[in-house]
Amino acid sequence: MNPRSCVNIHKEWDIVGARQLGREMAKEIGFGTVDQARIATAVSELARNIYLYAENGQICFEYIYTNSQKGILMTAVDTGPGIKDISSVMQDGYTTSGGLGAGLPGVKRLMDDFDIESTVGEGTKIKAIKWIR
Amino acid sequence: MDENLKELIINNSDSIVDNWMDEVGRIKAGNYTASISDELYENTNREFVNVIFTSIQNEGSSKVVEEFSEKIINLGWPLSYITDGLQIFRRVTIDFLLAQADQVDSNHFSNVLTSVDEWIEPLIRQLVNEYSGSWENILSLQRVALQELSAPLIPVMERITVMPLIGTIDTDRAKLIMENLLEGTIKHNSEVVLIDITGVPVVDTMVAHHIIQAAEAVRLIGSTCILVGIRPEIAQTIVNIGIDLSKFPTRSTLEKGFTKALEITEREVVDLHVKNQGIEDIMHSLKGE
Q1: Residues of B near A (CB-CB distance < 8 A)?
Q2: Which domains does chain A have, with CATH numbers?
Q3: Chain A contacts of B206, Cβ < 8 Å?
Q4: What is the ipTM of this complex?
């Protein structure tokens, strides 16, 4: 009763695929254009992180319902090198790739709930939820 | 033994072809080729089976196979038509050969299987290669076409140039944008370059990073870069994610950006009609006196 759709991330163009799926699902459940853009951007950031650092991973989307609200949950899982110091990557301006360093903290601000687990050498798992207001 | 089997099926090609035509005709109904007219389907089938036999007879006649695959590709028929057809041919031929033998021992059985495989395999290989070759060709043509579209630079008037961006920006495209932007700015001697992102679906940190770098590079060669076409939802997302675009001017639409560009180059658009109207008013008022 709770469909879950996933996109594998291997190539740069898979980022586009993940983004389109995220946007499509957000639209379907009733998010407005601004939130759709937020979700699409967050997907784009997470997918790009997988592509840049882990090379292999997956992004999944599912709808979640509670008594009072509904929303979309996205899960980004990879089997990459993992993140040694999570608190530093959550700081604005921290980057190891010469980018803007706004990716993960940006995703946290774009979404409502954000959770990151990472083990060095095993991989990273990020969960983010956006609720419909 | 191999030659005997070959002779056997060539001499009995009629009955094999009949069986094959029957079977292939049956798979037509429920699948991809349903929309094809019966006549065309049957003619193509006949040609297909002839190609198979020619190939078996000459032990791989690539010319005929090539012509046939080209025809099927042009017709736009799916690859599964070919693979199904060959699979059925294999089954029918094996059935036929086994039915012909007086007694079937394991030796004969494996001999039949090996021979039929030897006939069919080169055919499958060549036909699949032709198909995937044609797809790769289309793909590379499209990539070139996409690249040509990816970063156009339009000199709209003296000293003002516009680069409209449509679609997703990936790393390759970002490089092209940077190159075209700098080259064009110098070539057209532009003072102001407008980058229009109306058609860019998502501005994430990477896209923003590339745009900031491009704008900074344009600034270094002495021109001004204005980012235009920032839709409301993109503006909100940029603020949320925490991207700092304060280093260069931005506008919501190309129109407003263009006005700003005129301002920077110290020019303005004058409405000729209003000017004439003014003169007419003066004439009228003179007449009135």
Answers
A1: 168, 170-171, 201-206, 208-209, 212, 232-234, 236-237, 240-243
A2: 4-131 (3.30.565.10)
A3: 44, 48, 99
A4: 0.83
